[in-house]
Amino acid sequence: EDLQQLLRKAQEGDVRAMYEAALMYYYGATNEDGTTSGWDYERAMYWLKKVSESEDELKYHADTIIARLYYLGAVPGEAQSYEKSFEYHAKAAPKCPYSASNQGSMMKSGIGCSYDFEDIVEFYENNINRNDDLMMRQYAEFLTSCGKYADALEVYDSMEVQSPQIQYDVGCIY
Description:
The chain has 10 helices and 2 strands, in the order ααββαααααααα. The chain is mostly helical. Strand 1 (29-30) and strand 2 form a beta hairpin. The radius of gyration is 19 Å and the shape is elongated.
């Protein structure tokens, strides 16, 4: 569908059309004649926020993109905000592993939130049940950086994929 058709559907309340229109503005829409209209983050944010406010599953994907825009300082008319980025990643994290991973990284560094060891442990303990090796590796690296080597080894041992990088990480602990 072209952008004009999507916009008509979006204005009628079609959430998928809103999301697709937002992506076209976010990445730069291609017109029928092959020309590209370029990025338009203002219009992308307009539709992304509409999707975010919906009850549709796409809201988690919209929240992830909104978080990225706030993190990069690319939201038109607003200053860069790690706090808002963290907030939107937290909203998306339950259904979006990318946002969960970013939320964890931000928590470990105290970016957009206060650093709290217990909150970080609780976050990872609640999220590693997804069998997400990236999330598990982040948690193990965090535990290692805090000197919790036995706990880190438990996390590494529970991972399904034992890549050379994981084996190296484990070897460094010993």
